[in-house]
Amino acid sequence: MTDRLKGKRIMITGAAQGIGLAIARACAKEGASLFLVDLDAGLLETEAKALQATGATISYAIASITDTPAISAAVERAAAEIGPINALINNAGVNVFHEPLETSDAEWQRCFDINLKGAWNCSRAVLPGMIGQGGGVILNIASTHAFTIIPHTFPYPVAKHALLGMTKSLGIEYAPKGVRVNALAPGYVRTQKATEYWNSFPDPIAAEAETMKLHPGGRIATADEIALAALFMISDECPFMNATCLTIDGGLSVLHHPV
Q: How many Å apart are CA 216 and CA 187, to the nearest integer?
């Protein structure tokens, strides 16, 4: 522990597993106070208690990021329990992959409610407090889908492109108020979602091997590696980084892949 995040009161969504949990653990080690949000009550309570057992200051709420009143209430609770939020990590999201013409209205709505509206709900809830404190930082966990297109993944990249646009818009809008807004774009990460994706193929082992071959280094990221980048972006070590996106994909989006 180096106390790099001492004084940070961080709200993290989708914090019960995967990238969100890895970020929570990394931030706790660096002295941050955390307010964790997730829909999975059992997992969230288990992981929150595990972090508390390490001596970290942890509070949490079981809430959907698509529920505007619930998120507003969660932010008020956070202020009462750990202090006013001065850093937000919008991590919660869901893969919604379809052929465009086979995408139902319900699936379109679900994709945008969770991957875009949810991030806006949380940002809107914390921004007044950040402005009142003289500043803060918001980090949106985007994806390489925010600037590249993989066939058969519609409408997920549409929502992630929009999330990147929101990042830039809010970053410019609130820079005069001392609020930085950035995005982090992971590529493939070894999480439960990745495993579920490989398991959707007839031969999961072969599907995983094909994924590895896409990457210059022959492997994909761990959630802990993404967490290290997130930690840096919400720290005071990059005070002039604003309205931009940092890509963590091992070079995947740079390497040309013949169609």
A: 13
The candidate with the shortest Cα–Cα distance to 34, out of 19, 55, 17, is: 55
Q: Contact at 8 Å (CB) between 116 and 163? A: yes
- Which residue in 34, 12, 42 sits closest to 230, CA to CA? 12
Give the chain's largest Cα–Cα span: 54
pLDDT tens profile 186-197: 999 999 889 998
The catalytic residues are 156
pLDDT, mean of residues 240-248? 98
Cis ω on the peptide bond leading into residue 176 (within 30° of 0)? Answer: no
In this predicted structure, the answer to whether residue 252 has a pLDDT above a threshold of 70 is yes
Type of residue numbered 160: K
pTM value > 0.85: yes
Q: Say whether 195 sits in a helix, a strand or coil.
A: helix
In the DSSP assignment, the letter for residue 189 is: B
Q: Which domains does the chain possess? A: 9-188+222-248 (3.40.50.720)
> Which residues have C-beta within 8 Å of that of residue 135, sequence separation ≥ 6?
86, 177, 178, 179, 180
Q: What are phi and psi of 96, to 5 degrees?
A: -130, 100
Q: How far apart are CA 167 and CA 143, in angstroms?
A: 13
Backbone angles phi, psi at 182, to 5 degrees: -135, 170
**If you ran DSSP here, which 8-state letter would residue 117 be given?**
I
The rounded radius of gyration (Å) of the Cα atoms in the chain is 18
Instruction: Give the model confidence (pLDDT) of 56-109 as tens digits.
Output: 999 999 999 999 999 999 999 999 999 999 999 999 999 999 999 999 999 999
